[in-house]
Amino acid sequence: MRAREHFNGLLAFLQEQLAGEEGFTLGYNAEDSAFIRFNQGRVRQAGTVRQVYVTLALYRGLRHAESKLALSGEREADLPLLQQAVQQLRAILPGLPDDPYLRLNREAWRSESSDAVAPQDAAAMAVQISELAQGLDLVGFLAAGPQYQGFASSWGAFGWHVASSFNLEFSLFHGNAQAVKSTYAGERWDAEVFAGKLHGARQQLAYLGRPLRALAPGDYRAYLSPAALEELFGLFCWGFGAQALASGGSPLQRLFSGKAALSPMLSMDERIEGGLAPAFTREGPRQAVTLIRAGQPGERLVSSRSAAEYGLTANGACSGEYPLSLRVHGGELEEGEVLARLGSGLYIGNLWYCNFSDLPAGRLTGMTRFATFWVEDGEIQAPVSTMRFDDSLFSFFGEHLEALSRTPELLLPGGTYGARQTGSMALPGALLSRFTLTL
Length: 439
What we know:
Layout: H1 3-17, E1 23-39, E2 42-60, E3 63-71, H2 75-92, E4 110-113, H3 122-132, E5 138-153, E6 158-173, E7 179-186, H4 191-207, E8 218-224, H5 226-236, H6 242-247, H7 253-256, E9 268-270, E10 280-281, E11 284-285, E12 289-293, E13 296-297, H8 304-310, E14 325-328, H9 338-342, E15 345-358, E16 363-376, E17 379-383, E18 388-392, H10 393-399, E19 401-404, E20 409-411, E21 424-427, E22 430-437
Parallel strand pairs: 4-6, 8-15, 14-21
Antiparallel strand pairs: 1-2, 1-5, 2-3, 5-6, 6-7, 8-22, 9-12, 9-14, 10-11, 12-13, 15-16, 16-17, 16-18, 19-22, 20-21
Helix pairs in contact: 1-2, 3-4
InterPro entries: Metalloprtase-TldD/E_C (IPR045569), TldD/PmbA_sf (IPR036059)
GO molecular function: metallopeptidase activity
Domain Metalloprotease TldD/E C-terminal: 217-437
């Protein structure tokens, strides 16, 4: 896919379409992805998706309107559609009211990151997965390939970003229908790393044949894997947004108001380098933001609209004001020491059905999922029946956070609705001295 050439052609065409005091912004999202489904360790379905979406916004004064188009990727076929969209938006603008919070970034900036993009050989990955999964009931889904993102404006802004990645989500099923779930994601496929992931899942699978351990509701020591933490951070990380905090709707309200604190072991950033998201949004160049420093509140994620409404300074946050490349700093817990440090308690590989039970208090609830094990004296004893938890994030990541694993794991979103996502989280595992099961 000649995405960069296509984007440049659309941009040049739009520059010629402007009339009077009009201005425009053009967002560009494309992908050339392979999708492969596995069942019983074999490829059951394989295909590719090549698609292009653009979002065109037309401005005149404080009035603006936008249109999202699905394009073919061929310039001559797409220009008439773009011209039609300009004409439709131009007809709409006179009937729209002024937007009092419109604060367009009219600076000319440039951001490009497309060098040394790793190619993704999905067919070779599929062969290795099938070979190593022989004899296992492996069910999985692999997405791989390049994604292209661009942004430009009539005022001279230009951003271009190419990210090539893969994301494999797989489960190993036991004969009793219990399963172990694991993921492997990144920019460069390493057969040895995948083999290690599969070996770890295979070891846990062996324990699923033991009778389930039923636990009474109560407080337990627990280790939450990076995948389990992803479910929790995905719930509340939008709470760093300026709008959520200013309106009182953030689950982190108590932290930023000084009424609660988190563990000094906890630090997290919205990073620019190291993730798959571009170094820009439609708001302009993104800035690296320290969200939490040693348990204390850091900066907020501020979009241009929030900056205008609340008298703040925008820092390139996306319009939803949530992290695009979240990184939680690792701690001193070595991966090989997790079970020994846990002693007796729960090893939790995954969580699901997570939601807020009391948003203002930052309370979270959800269910344990897949391979959650009971551990005694540093040894896995039995799988645990599905249980519900309910506790505050100020408990999880406050006084009851005992340790964080040393090396954060890169986790990519598995969502493909409409298009593959480019956000990411780099998360360690967390050892908790208390994890509350309610039923």
